[in-house]
Amino acid sequence: MDKNQCSCVSNQKDLLCRLREIDFVIVETTLYLDVYPDCLEAKEYLAAMREKRAKLAAEYEARHGMLTMYGVCGGSSDKCAPWPWEYAAN
Amino acid sequence: MWIYEKKLQYPVKIKNPNPALASAMISQLGGPDGELAASMRYLHQRYGMPYNEVIGILTDIGTEELAHLEMIAAIIYQLTRNISIDNIKGTMFEPYYVDHTTGLYPIAASGVPFDMKYVGVKGDPLADLAESQAAEQKARVTYDNLIRLSDDPDVTDPLRFLREREIVHFQRFGDAMRVVQDKLDGKNFYAFNPAFDKKTK
Known about the structure:
The structure holds 2 protein chains of 2 kinds. Chain A has helices at 12-35, 40-64. Chain A is mainly α. Chain A has one domain (4-89). Chain A is elongated and about 45 Å long. Mean pLDDT of chain A is 83; it is low at 1-9. Chain B has one domain (19-183): Ferritin (Up-down Bundle). The radius of gyration of chain B is 19 Å and the shape is elongated. At the A-B interface, helix 1 of A face helix 4 and helix 8 of B.
C-alpha cells in the first residue's frame, strides 16, 4: 500500500488505514498458522504484529471512539468515528 | 461468540452513484456464491471437523467472510447513495427499488433472495472441504465477472481485493485438505469418515 497515504497518525483515516494494514497482516498470518501450526517464524511474527496492533488500537480508540462491542459509540460521544460503510469513513 | 469491529477490512469509497451497477454487485451479498453463503458454509461445516487445524481455518475464514459481506454492503450502499427516482427509472435497479427502496437485502443479481440451498454441509471432512474449495473458485469467477462489468475504478479496486482473498482462501482450504488426508489411511481415504466414525471427547 502507498506509504504516503498512511504516514500521518493525527488524522482518523490515516490511523484507521494503519490499523487496517496491520489487521490484514494478522489475518493472513493467522490463516497460515491455522494450517501450519508448527511454523516458528510465523508464530514470532504474529506475536510481534499483535503487540504493535494493540498499541495502535489503543491510540485509535482513545482519539476516535471504541472499535468493538465493548463500547461502539451510540452517538452521544464527541469521540465518534463515522460508520464504516459511509463514504466519509473511507 | 463474535465481536464487531467498527471498521471495514479494506476501504470502500465510491464517488459516483450507479444503481444499475449496484444491482449486479448485490449477488455477492445474497447470491449463490456470495459472501453470506460463504460465511454460513464455513461456520457450519466446522462442527463436523475432527482436526483442530481444519476447525480453526473454517472459523477464521468464515469470520473474514462476514467482513467481506460488510464491504459488499458498503459498495451497494454507496452506489445507491443520494440518488433520485430519475437515476432508478428504466435501470436494472427498478424492481429492487419497488420491494426494498435503497435498503440492503441479501438477494442474487437474478432477483432470488438468499437461500441456504446454496450451502453444502455433508458432515464429512473430504466432501465439505472439496465443497469449500469449489466455493472459493466460484466466488473468484463471480468477482471476475463483476470486475468486467464495472466501469468505475472506485468499485473495481475493492473488488480486486476481494477477488484476491478468494484465491488465498482456496489455497488455505487446499492445505486443510492435505492435513485431513495426512491423518487418514493413505491407501483409501474414503474407508472411514473421521467426522462420524471417530469418537469425540
